[in-house]
Amino acid sequence: MATFNVHVTIENKPGISDPEGDTILNDLVLKGTHKTVSKIKTAKMLKFTIKEKDKKTAQSKIQEICDDLRIYNPMVSKVTVDVFEN
Amino acid sequence: MATFNVHVTIENKPGISDPEGDTILNDLVLKGTHKTVSKIKTAKMLKFTIKEKDKKTAQSKIQEICDDLRIYNPMVSKVTVDVFEN
Amino acid sequence: MKVGVVVFPGSNCDRDMYHVLTDVFHLDTEYFWHEKGLPKNIDAVVLPGGFSYGDRLRAGVIAAHSPIIKDVRKMAEKGIPILGVCNGFQILVESGLLPGVLLKNESLNFMCEWTNLIVENNKTPFTNQFKLHEKIPIPIANGEGRYYVDDDTMKKLKKNNQIVFRYSKIVNGSANRIAGVCNEDGNVVGMMPHPERAVESDINPVDNKPSSKIFESLIKKIGVEN
Amino acid sequence: MSLEEQELSELKSKIGRNPTSTELQIVAAEWSEHCSYKSSKRHLKMLPMDGPLVIKEKGYDSGVLDVGDGYVVTAHIESHNHPSAVEPYGGAATGVGGVIRDILSAGTRPIAIFDGLRFGNIEKDLQARWLFKNAVTGIADYGNCLGIPTIGGEVEFDECYENYALVDVAALGFGKKENLIKNHAKKDDIVVLMGGATGRDGIGGSQFASDSLESEDRSAVQIPDPFIEKLIIEAVLQARDDGLIHAMKDLGGGGLSCAISETADALDIGIEMDVDKVHTRESDMHPDEIMVSESQERMLVVTSKSKLKKLEEICKKFHIGCSVIGQVKFDHQMHVTKGKKTFANLPTDVVANATLLDLPSKEPTYLKTIETEKKFKPVSDYSKTLMKLLASPNIASKIWVYGQYDHEVGIRTVVKPGADAAVLRLDNGKYLSAKIDGNPKQCYINPREGAIGCFEEACRNVVCTGAKPIGMLDHLQFGNPKDPEIFWTFLESLKGLTDFAKSFGIPCVGGKVSLYNETPSGPIKPTPVIGVIGLIDKKPSVPQKISKGDCLLIIGDTKDEMGGSEFFEYIHKFVGGKCPKVNFDDSKKNMKSVLSLIKNNLVKSVHDCSKGGLAVAVSELTMTNQIGCKVSLDKVPGDKLDVDRILFSESHSRYLLAFEKKNLAQIESLLNKNKVSFKQIGQFGGSDIEFSNKTKSIIKLNVERTRKTWLHSLPNLVLHGKK
Ligand SMILES: Nc1ncnc2c1ncn2[C@@H]1O[C@H](COP(=O)(O)OP(=O)(O)O)[C@@H](O)[C@H]1O
Ligand SMILES: [Mg+2]
C-alpha cells in the first residue's frame, strides 16, 4: 500500500460560460495595469490523500468516488484527475 | 510573444481549517464505502491565459497580479503558480 | 452634516441603509457610486451590505479595488466615522482598513437568522450610546461571515480594544465569537449583522431600541440632533 | 428542435412558401407548448381574470393589482422543472432569474420570491437528496445576490417525482402606478437588447421544457449570473424613472424568437432586426442559434432614437451590454436579417399564435376505485406516530431551507418565514401577505377537490395573517397532455380552481402551465401550485408569544377525509381514500370570522390545520412557542370519528386560535353570531403536548424534545437519508 495525492479539478465544460472568471478578468485584472491577460477560467480543486496499492487504482478509485457521490455534475462540469506519488 | 496558460491554485495555509474539505470527507466519502481516503483539502483554481515574451515573465507577471490584486488573502491562503506553454 | 452611502455594483442593502439614515434618523444622506470620489464635506461614510461583484473570487475583494476606496481610506485616516455592514465589512477587511478576514461560515451555508450581539467596546462612533456588554437583537444574513485573524493580530485586537461586537453564542464559528471590529483609532467599524434591519419595530420581532443606538451614537458623534 | 409534420404544412400554407431554416427554428420555438400554450390556452380562458383591483395592459408578463394610494403590486409564477431535474443548481437559479425579469418588465421593483420544491423520496434516494440540496443552494445564491428576499414557499417529497424535480418560483413586485410601462411603440422607435451576451447555452430550452425528459437535449444547461441580473434590475429601473422605456419584455423560453414575435404581436407592430447587432459571447454563432438561444439575464426594450443615448449611458454605468438590434415597423412582419441578407420574414401573428389544440380527455380508470379504503392495523402508540410524522420530510420544519434564504433584505418582512404566510409592509402603510401551496397527494386522488384544496389552503395561510385574498396565481403541472386521462385531470383541476375563484371573487392574476412532466416511471401526479396574495389595510396579525393559561380554540369541522393524508401515505403507506372537500359556505364564513377576530385584536396567534391535521398543527404551535398544551379530542367539532381520524384528518377550512382567556366570551359571541362551527379544545401550559379523549390520555410528548426532532430532521435527512 502506498499513499497518493490525487488532485481533482472540476471546471465548466468548454462552451459553458464562467461568469466568475469573466468578472475577475474584467472588473479586477483588466481594470489594473495588467493588459496582457486575455482570459480567466475558474475551477475548483479537491486534493485527496488516499492509500491504494498502485497509482492506477488510486486514480480509478477517486474517479469512482467523484461519480458516485456526485461531487460534480457531468452535465455542466468536467473533471480531471491527476495522481501524484507521495 | 507567446501565449501561456497559467494555473493559479489558491489554498488554505497549513494550520487553517478547511470545513468544506472536512465535510466532504466525513459526511460523504467516509459515510460510504470508500475508507481508503484519509484527507480532502479544497482549493480554488484560476486558469489565466496570458501573452508574454517567455515563460519566466508569464510566471512573474501572474505572481505579481496575485499579490497586487489580492487574488489570495495572505492571512489565510497561499498560491501556487504553474505555467504551461500553449 | 452629511452621510455618504457608497454603492458598488451588486450592493443590495444600500436602499435599506439610506431609508434608515434618512427616514428613521433624519440624517442628510447621499449615495455615492463606487467610480466617483467622495466630496470633502462628508461627515460619515457607510458601506452597505450586498454582493458587490457577485461575491466573486472572495466577498469584498473586487470592490476593495474600486476607485472610491482611496477616498474612504483618506477619510479613515482623518478620523471620520466609517461603518461597514456585512459586505461593507468584507470590503473594509479586504482593503486593509480593518484587520482580519471573513471566511465561509462553518455550516458552509448562507445563514439568515436573528441573533444577539454583545457590545464589547462602547467608545466607537457607532457604540458610544451603549452600556458595555449591552445586548442587541439583530439579524445576520451572510455566507462568508466567519471572522478570523492570526494569533498575533488577535492579541493586538484585544490589547487595543478593537473587538466591538461579539455574538452571545456560537453562530458561525467566528474566532472569539467576533461579529464586529474597529481599526486602532476606533473610527472605522465593521460588523456582519445588519443594524438597518433592526431599528424599526415593525420588522424587529424582539426590540428595536438597542440597534437604534448604533445610529444614535453616530448622531451623537457627528453632532446632529433629530 | 422541430415542428410536427402537420404543423409544418400549416406553416407552409399560412405563409404560402417553404420556410427557411431560421424561420423553422423561430416557429418551432414559439409554437412549442412552453411558449404557445397550445394545449391549454383555450381552457385557461375559463378562469376569472378581472376584478376591481386588477389592472390590465397589453404585453404584461405579470399580473398587476392596484393596492391603493397610487401603488401597484405585480405578481407572477414560473417553473423550471426540466432544467432543474438535470442541473438543479443552475435550473433553480435561472428559474428565479426568469420570474424576476417578468416582474421587472412591468416596470416594478421585485420585492419578494417564493419557491415551491418537489422531489422524490429523500429518505431513500440519493439522487433526490442531491437535487433538493442543489436546488435550494441555487435559489439561495441567486435570490440572495439580487437582494430580493425569499419569504415563503413549500417543500414536498413524493415517489412520483423520482429522478425528477419540480421547481416553482413566484415573485412579487411593487411600484407606483404611474411608473408602469405602458407597452407601446411609435414610428421610428428602435429595439434594444440589454444585458448579458447571447451564447450557445440553453439552446433548445423551451423545446426541452415541452418534451419529456427521456428525449432531453442535454446541451440545454443554463448558467446563472445573478450579478448581471442585479445590474439589469438597477439599470432598467433607472431607465424607467427617466422615462426611457416605451415597451419592454424579458427574454425567457424561446429567446429572441419569442420576445420579438410576442412584442410585435402584442404592440400590433412589425420588427426588423439584424442578428449581427446582437452582442454574442462566441463569435461564430449562426443566426438560428442567436434567435433561439436562451441565454439568461437579457431584456428587450423598445425606445426612441432620441432616448437611446441616455439608455446607453445607464448601461455603461452598470457595465451591461446594450445593442440596438432592430427597429419598429408597421408591417406586422418579423424580419430577421444578417447584415443585408434576410434569414426570416414572417407575419408576427403567424409566429406568435400557434394553432390551439383541443385535446381529448377521459376520466382515468384508477379514480373509480381510489376512494375505497383499506383496513389498517390499529395504531398502538399515538405518541410514537405523531413523533414519526413530525420528523417526516413533508412535515419536519423547513428552517434548513428558508434559513439559507435572505428573507430580511429590503426591510419589508414583518412576518418572517416559519409562520403560515409571510407579510411585507408596503410604502402606503398597507401590508401584503402571500403564500404558495400544492398538494399532489390529494390532487391525485381527486384532481378537482385537490386543486380547490390547494387554493383554499393558500387562502387560509394568508387569512391567518389578517389579510383578505385579492389575487391568485396558478401553476398547473401535469404529465403528457396527449394522454386523455392526464388531460382530464388537468381540466378537472382547472374547473375546480375556476369555481373557487368565481365563488370567492378572487381573480387569477397570472399563471403558468407546465406539461410533459414525466419521469422514467411515468407521469407526475397532478401538481397544481396555487399562490394567493392578500392585502391588509391596517395591521397584520404578527404571532405573539403564547403563555400559560391561554386558550386553544378550533374553527371548522373535522371530517372523515383521510385520502392523501400524511397519516395514510407516510404512516400506512396507503394511497387512496376520500379526498378532503372544501365546503364553500363554511370556508367563507370561517375566513370572515378569523379576519374579524384579528381585526378586533382578540387573538394572539392563528394557525391553520393542513398537512398532518390537527395533531401536527397543535404541535407546531407548541413547538414554536415552546410551551405545552392539553387538548381534548372529544370536544373537536365535526363528524363522530375515531381518535386517529380526529388527530390526522386533513379537512380544510380549519383554524386554530390561541388567545388570552379573558377574550373567550367575546370570541365565542362573534363566532356564534357568524354561525361557524367551533369549540375551545384546549389550554396552554406545562411542557408537554397532550391529547386526550374523554379522560383517556392518547398522546403525551415533551415539547422541547419534540421540537429538536422536528427542527433537525430535515438537515439530517439531506445529509444522510434515513438510516
Ligand atoms: N421552500 C421554501 N422556501 C421558503 N420558505 C419555505 C419553504 N418551504 C417552507 N417554507 C416556509 O416554512 C413555513 C411552513 O411551510 P408549510 O409547511 O408549507 O406551511 P403551511 O402548511 O402553512 O402551508 C412557511 O412559513 C413557509 O413559507
Ligand atoms: Mg398553514
Features:
heterotetramer, A: 86 residues, alpha+beta, Mth169, Chain: A, 3-stranded antiparallel sheet, 2 helices, elongated, D: 723 residues, Phosphoribosyl-aminoimidazole Synthetase, Chain A, domain 2, 7-stranded mixed sheet, 24 helices, globular, binds adenosine-5'-diphosphate, binds magnesium ion
Tell me what you see in this structure.
The complex is a heterotetramer, with two copies of chain A (86 residues), one copy of chain C (226 residues) and one copy of chain D (723 residues). Chain A has one domain (2-85): Phosphoribosylformylglycinamidine synthase subunit PurS (Mth169, Chain: A). Chain A has helices spanning 19-29, 55-68; strands at 2-12, 37-52, 77-85. Helices cover 29% and strands 42% of the residues of chain A. The N and C termini of chain A lie close together (12 Å). A three-stranded antiparallel β-sheet of chain A has the order 2-1-3. Chain C has 226 residues and is α/β, with parallel strands linked by helices. Chain C has one domain: 3-Layer(aba) Sandwich (Rossmann fold). Chain C has helices at residues 14-24, 68-78, 87-94, 151-159, 209-222, and strands at residues 3-7, 29-33, 44-47, 82-85, 101-103, 111-119, 135-142, 146-148, 163-167, 178-182, 188-191. In chain C, the strands form two sheets. Chain C has a nine-stranded mixed β-sheet with strand order 2-1-3-4-11-10-9-6-7, with helices on both faces. In chain C, strands 5-8 form a two-stranded antiparallel ribbon. The longest helix of chain C is centred in the C-terminal third of the chain and has 14 residues, at 209-222. In chain D, a hairpin with a 7-residue loop joins strand 1 (54-55) and strand 2. Chain D has a seven-stranded mixed β-sheet, with helices on both faces. In chain D, strands 23-25-22-26-24-27-28 form a seven-stranded mixed β-sheet, sandwiched between helices. Chain D is of the alpha+beta class. The longest helix of chain D is centred in the N-terminal third of the chain and has 21 residues, at 126-146. Helices cover 36% and strands 24% of the residues of chain D. Chain D contains 24 helices and 28 strands. Chains in contact: A-B, A-C, A-D, B-C, C-D. The A-B interface holds A 3, 9, 11, 21, 24, 28-29, 32, 34, 36-52, 61, 64-65, 68-69, 71 and B 3, 9, 11, 21, 24, 28-29, 32, 34, 36-52, 61, 64-65, 68-69, 71. Strand 2 (37-52) of chain A pairs antiparallel with strand 2 (37-52) of chain B.
